[in-house]
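hey so u asked for the seq, here:
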Amino acid sequence: MTDPSLPADPRVAVVTGAGSGIGRAVARLMLSEGYRVALAGRREAQLLETADGHPDALAVPCDVTVPDDVARLFEQVRQRWGRVDVLFNNAGIFGPAGDVGDLDIAEWEATLRVNVTGSMLCAAEAVRTMKAQEPQGGRIINNGSISAHSPRPRSVAYTVTKHAMTGLTKSIELDGRDFGITCGQIDIGNTRTEIMDTIGVGSGALQADGSRKVEPMFPVDDAARAVLMMANMPPSASVGSVVVTAAGMPFIGRG
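ran it, structure tokens below
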């Protein structure tokens, strides 16, 4: 039986950071599952590679730190499909390596702009769209990190932004209740993407005791399936938090 609170047409998703990594895997999986998907990212060539000519993909070059870019992204989605059902708020950077005494202020601020302000701008546009559409409502999924629970050494900028993402998630979930808007956060540890090379997971990641350890990783397609599970929940249910890690990675008991 069809849920009358769901749109009759295929559901519409916006995926930021869709040019690579988790964003690319999620966008492609959603397209294969019948979603119409807007692919957002800074590099058009990578977005088109993700889309791979799919008729229900819309590639929109967008810098999430620029309010006009984000507004244009959502306006293009509304013009093409009339609504937004899901936002996967995924765009992010790891930022500088260093403790709080080592930080360059420009690098700190750049990390906050992408990971926090960019996520807020996209969520704000999504919320405004979801409030105005019929049927009203939708779902926002924020990509956090296990660093929202426990930091890696010398990752203060990234860790702070991911703790901030948890506050953003809870605030959206609370403020969206009267409008049928839900918000959840997925915290992923060691899926096999380019950022893992940045922190040396495959060659030896820095541990809390100063040693380096090669850590296990898991396929990015498995992370994408977890995001799809959250997206596919009915409007009557909200998945507030999901943690998915590589089996055996040093997360539980980190320290």
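The beta strands are 12-16, 36-41, 57-61, 86-89, 138-143, 181-189, 205-206, 212-213, 241-245. Residues 142 and 185 are 5 Å apart (CA to CA).
lmk if thats what u needed
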